[in-house]
Write a structure and sequence with these properties.
Helices cover 40% and strands 16% of the residues. With 396 residues, the protein is α/β, with parallel strands linked by helices. The chain has two domains: 144 residues, Aspartate Aminotransferase, domain 1 (Alpha-Beta Complex); 241 residues, 3-Layer(aba) Sandwich (Aspartate Aminotransferase, domain 2). Helix 4 runs parallel beside helix 10, helix 5 packs across helix 6 and helix 11 packs parallel to helix 13. Bound molecules: pyridoxal-5'-phosphate.
């Protein structure tokens, strides 16, 4: 007899990690498996954090983040989406994953479930299980003719019952790049309000959108101060800060005080000097860097798109739906039945790292036909990775 929860003992690393473990850090491999750019965090952000460290900013801070950082976040939302978010609603608990965990803990209840739009980044359904919520995945559907992923609203709402505590939607999504429209958001918010269901909106790729718009439609533009709406944001992706582990949560205003207790019970707030780096990221210089990174991603996306068009012309087995946002290609391989073995094989034989589609769902066979690549990288390296991939694919 062990007192350890059997569902905890049954947890396994995600399929992405099972592949990356085969060669993370090996310079001979082109790594397209993880969700990060190849750029180092910009110098001005590193300098701001170093200066803060030199100045002795090494003590505990306000558990929800230092005031000037929360003010900078408020100003950022004002200038990117025109939303007025009160400081009571902003918490910087540590990494964005801690923001997800806090939101889940704020709504979890014994016997509760959470309806999650999938394919989805696996840490989300893992975190739901750890918070003792049953994850129910509602899969987006391929519309190959329109070249877009689609959310069937009826299926989303039908998946909810009296025990549903929250809906989780990442938009732009990882791995699909799918984006909710503002109309869909309003319909979902109406439904959630009527049914007393929380919304957890993951907007960590909110500014990484292509073809014109500056920001994906945001829940923050339509939610009132007291709606049970939680929005997750991160410094990781737009400012190339994945290793810093800092992000933020926008939550209902009434959670201002409880969030102090929650973050104290979690990480007792964020590393002090890191918060100064984050403040630098939110400056005008940070806006300029975001634009640069977006441009790099747009170029990466174009490289993948050209490659896929050539595949289409040669009647090959590969196709994709060009993503509207985020920085991933979710590539469909006709006839593929076991994406994990395939991705592991690609590392060994072709020296290219890709993430298996199966990682992004909980056993849906449709996702076995996919692999994910990250295109937030140098264009020449992506092209080289794709050509290695193409060569190895021909032999499978
Ligand atoms: C959809 C989504 N949400 C949240 C995160 C977590 O971001 P962070 O690394 O800042 O915790 C990621 C990271 O890949 C992600 O893809």
């Amino acid at each position: 007899m062990t007192p350890i929860r059997s569902d905890i003992l049954a947890l396994e690393p995600s399929g992405i990690i099972k592949v990356a473990q085969l060669g993370l850090g090996d310079p001979g491999i082109i790594p397209l498996w993880l969700g990060e750019t190849d750029l180092v965090t910009p110098q001005f952000i590193r300098d701001a954090a170093s200066r803060a460290l030199e100045d002795g900013r090494t003590f505990y801070t306000h558990a929800r983040g230092i005031l000037p950082l929360r003010e900078a976040i408020r100003d950022y939302h004002r200038r990117t989406i025109g939303a007025e978010i009160s400081l009571d609603r902003i918490t910087v608990p540590g990494a964005a994953m801690l923001a997800v965990a806090n939101a889940l803990q704020a709504v979890a209840a014994e016997g509760g479930n959470i309806v999650i739009v999938s394919p989805v980044w696996p840490n989300i359904f893992q975190a739901a299980k750890i918070a003792r919520m049953e994850p129910r995945l509602v899969r987006l559907e391929e519309d190959w003719n329109a070249g877009r992923w689609r959310l069937d609203m009826d299926r989303l709402f039908d998946a909810c019952d009296a025990n549903t505590r929250a809906l989780f939607l990442a938009s732009p999504g990882n791995p699909t790049g799918w984006m909710l429209t503002a109309d869909e958001q309003r319909t979902i918010l109406d439904f959630a309000r009527k049914r007393g269901i929380a919304i957890i909106g993951d907007e960590v790729y909110g500014t990484l959108v292509y073809d014109g718009a500056a920001h994906a439609p945001s829940w923050l533009s339509i939610a009132e101060d007291e709606d049970a709406v939680f929005v997750i944001n991160s410094f990781s992706k737009p400012w190339a800060m994945t290793g810093w582990r800092i992000g933020w949560l926008v939550h209902p205003a009434s959670l201002a005080v409880p969030m102090v207790a929650m973050t104290q019970a979690g990480n007792t707030g964020t590393t002090h000097f890191i918060q100064y780096g984050a403040m630098a990221a939110l400056s005008a210089q940070g806006d300029a860097f975001r634009a640069e990174l977006l441009d790099r991603c747009a170029k990466g996306r174009a490289v993948v798109d050209d490659f896929m068009k050539r595949q289409g012309r040669s009647n090959n087995r590969l196709r994709w739906m060009k993503p509207d946002g985020a920085f991933y290609g979710f590539l469909n391989i006709d006839g593929l039945k076991d994406s994990l073995s395939f991705a592991q094989d690609m590392v060994r034989r072709a020296k290219v790292g890709v993430a298996p589609g199966s990682a992004f769902s909980m056993g849906d066979p449709r996702d076995e036909a996919y692999i994910r690549i990250c295109f937030a990288q140098d264009a020449a390296r992506i092209a080289e990775g794709l050509s290695r991939f193409e060569g190895a694919l021909a032999a499978v």
